[in-house]
């Protein structure tokens, strides 16, 4: 049985329902990517699963327990989240920022222990940021700063890491740097990675499991072979995509696409309408 899943999850703001009757299973020790157009509920879903926001009905279950009833520090030892726009770290050194990841383990006056310092140094080492330990976070490049935030998440020593668009505002080289780091953490340390991505080809290249959302509902979930298809992309993004193969990974990739408009879109949508499917793990 999977460690993390949702049961008829409904999430909204006021009377507006964003995510509707969502049932998903997150594969353990895999990389899961959530894709979909702007405003479809990707970030909202991530926030609800990690209890940053509350949900209206349904449940999020982790290790057999409803997370809404879980102790905050206990939950923080199980899952870490890197939001789309992390709070400013102005004036902090890299080491100081990463040390915040040890909060779930602190007692009393919150002084760092020898164990805490060892974990902080390990997180800096594995993310390649150890040389920046005493530098200001403000002085780092975008890619370096993102790796430092990931180091802080790693310092929580959680088996699950959630990331909301971790490549936003980064150039192509830094995007690849961050995604390869996450892949390495998954492969070497068996961390379960759940992230929102906009780039379909990055999702196909790095994810083991993809959840495609539209208007707060799942269109399809499964492997990249099942999701990066003409029909699914037509349904989710309203595009007519040409699908090929990545010459380096042999995974499917979107080569080019046209927008579906007017009668053409409605015709295509009717033809591609099929039941929502969820792969079981």
UniProtKB/TrEMBL annotation:
Origin superkingdom: Bacteria
Question: Subcellular location, in the record's words?
Answer: Cell membrane
Task: Classify the protein's membrane topology as the record does.
Answer: Peripheral membrane protein
Q: Which residues form the ABC transporter domain?
A: 4-240
InterPro entries assigned to the protein according to its UniProt record, in alphabetical order? AAA+_ATPase, ABC_transporter-like_ATP-bd, ABC_transporter-like_CS, P-loop_NTPase, Siderophore_ABC-ATPase
Per the record, a Pfam family? Answer: ABC_tran
Could you state a single Gene Ontology molecular function term?
A: ATP binding
Q: Which UniProt keywords apply?
A: ATP-binding, Cell membrane, Ion transport, Iron, Iron transport, Membrane, Nucleotide-binding, Transport
Q: Which Gene3D superfamilies match?
A: P-loop containing nucleotide triphosphate hydrolases
Q: What protein name does the entry list?
A: Iron complex transport system ATP-binding protein
Source species: Peribacillus huizhouensis
